[in-house]
C-alpha cells in the first residue's frame, strides 16, 4: 500500500503494525480541512493493506492534537460546501472504526481537544501518558458536541460524567480519564507510544480471524448505539453551526497570533 499521498498523517508499517501519527508538531498537531479528510479515509486504506495486522494512532511531538485550527473553524462557520464535506467526513471517522476488523491502539500525550478526541477514543485500547489532557469545549463555542463526543463519553464514562464535562468544557487529566473509564490506562510521561506499540505487536501476533470476530462482538453495542447517540447529536451540531453564537465565536478568533490561531481558547 502506498501511503505517500498522505500529507498530514505520517504512516509507516513494520512487522505487521502500522503507525499512524498526526504530523504537524510545530502547531500541536492541529488539523486543517485537508487533514480531517485524511482521517476520514485512512481506515479504508489500512483495511486493504494485507501487511497490516494492527494499528497504532498517535502524534509526533508533545500533543496528540490541539483540535481544529482556525482555518477549519472559519470554513465550518462560513462555507456551506466545506461544512457539508466536513460532516460527511466526520461520519466516516466515527463509523469506520466500528466495522474495522484490525485492532487499533491509541497513544495519547498532551492535548486531546474536541473532534480529535473522537479519532483517538474510537480505538480498542487507549493509552495515555501523565501529560495527557482531555477537553471538549463545543458548548462554550456555541456548538453541540456532535462529532462523536456524545457517543464516546456517554458509552465509556456514563451519562452523568459525560454531562459534567461536555456541558462545562472542563478539562480532564489522564488519571481522572482512567478513573471514569474514558481510557484504558495511564503510563509515565513520554511512554504512551511505546506502550501502545507493545499492545499492537501483541495483538498482531494473535489469530486474525479470532481478533476479527471478537472485535465485531465487542463493537456490536457501539454499532447499535451509534445511530441514536451519534446521528442525532451530529444533526444537532449541524444546526448549531448556523447559529449567531458560533459565527460570533469564530469571528472573535485571533488573526495575527500564530500560537493562538492554532489552539484558540475554547477550541471545540
UniProtKB/TrEMBL annotation:
Pfam families given in the database record: ECH_1
Alphabetized SUPFAM superfamilies for the sequence: ClpP/crotonase
InterPro entries referenced in this protein's UniProt entry, alphabetically: ClpP/crotonase-like_dom_sf, Enoyl-CoA_hyd/isom_CS, Enoyl-CoA_hydra/iso, Enoyl-CoA_hydra_C
CDD domains the record matches: crotonase-like
Recorded family membership: Belongs to the enoyl-CoA hydratase/isomerase family.
Protein name (Swiss-Prot/TrEMBL): Enoyl-CoA hydratase/isomerase family protein
Amino acid at each position: 500500500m502506498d501511503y505517500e499521498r498522505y500529507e498530514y498523517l505520517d504512516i509507516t508499517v513494520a512487522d505487521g503494525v502500522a503507525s499512524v501519527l498526526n504530523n504537524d508538531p510545530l502547531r500541536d498537531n492541529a488539523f486543517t480541512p485537508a487533514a480531517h479528510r485524511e482521517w476520514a479515509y485512512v481506515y479504508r486504506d489500512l483495511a486493504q493493506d494485507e501487511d497490516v495486522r494492527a494499528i497504532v494512532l498517535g502524534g509526533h511531538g508533545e500533543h496528540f492534537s490541539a483540535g481544529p485550527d482556525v482555518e477549519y473553524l472559519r470554513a465550518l462557520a462560513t462555507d456551506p460546501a466545506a461544512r457539508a464535506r466536513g460532516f460527511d467526513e466526520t461520519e466516516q471517522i466515527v463509523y469506520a472504526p466500528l466495522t474495522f476488523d484490525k485492532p487499533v491502539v491509541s497513544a495519547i500525550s498532551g492535548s486531546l481537544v474536541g473532534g480529535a478526541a473522537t479519532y483517538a477514543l474510537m480505538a480498542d485500547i487507549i493509552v495515555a501518558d501523565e501529560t495527557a489532557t482531555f477537553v471538549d469545549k463545543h458548548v462554550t463555542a456555541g456548538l453541540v458536541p456532535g462529532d462523536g463526543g456524545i457517543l464516546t463519553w456517554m458509552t465509556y464514562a456514563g451519562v452523568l460524567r459525560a454531562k459534567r464535562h461536555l456541558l462545562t468544557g472542563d478539562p480532564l487529566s489522564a488519571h481522572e480519564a482512567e478513573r471514569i473509564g474514558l481510557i484504558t490506562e495511564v503510563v509515565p510521561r513520554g511512554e504512551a507510544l511505546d506502550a501502545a506499540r507493545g499492545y499492537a505487536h501483541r495483538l498482531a501476533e494473535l489469530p486474525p480471524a479470532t481478533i476479527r470476530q471478537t472485535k465485531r462482538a465487542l463493537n456490536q453495542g457501539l454499532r447499535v448505539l451509534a445511530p441514536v447517540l451519534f446521528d442525532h447529536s451530529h444533526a444537532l451540531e449541524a444546526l448549531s453551526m448556523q447559529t449567531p453564537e458560533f459565527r460570533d465565536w469564530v469571528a472573535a478568533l485571533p488573526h495575527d497570533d500564530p500560537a493562538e490561531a492554532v489552539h484558540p481558547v475554547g477550541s471545540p
